[in-house]
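Reference record
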Amino acid sequence: MKKLIIIFLAWSVPIVTFAAPKTVMDLAKWLVTIMNMATAMLITLAIVIYFWGIVYNYNSISKDPAKMRAFLVWGVVAVFVMVSIWGIVALIKNSILI
């Protein structure tokens, strides 16, 4: 088993080394790409959860309109904050000319 692990590591280390960023700019591009994808996934997940929460809680919240209004407002605020963060990432990306 140890021999198999050693062979696997000996085979995989050059692949990882060749895939590593060669300059700081390559590393910055990679980090911005990861942040952009993560932010897009979080925004999509937040919107899905927001609408699921509206549908799921429609009957129980409809008895209290103030609670429904608060739920809707805070959901919109959360999505707005996430989209703002996405905009900040895009601003950083464009300011360092990636």
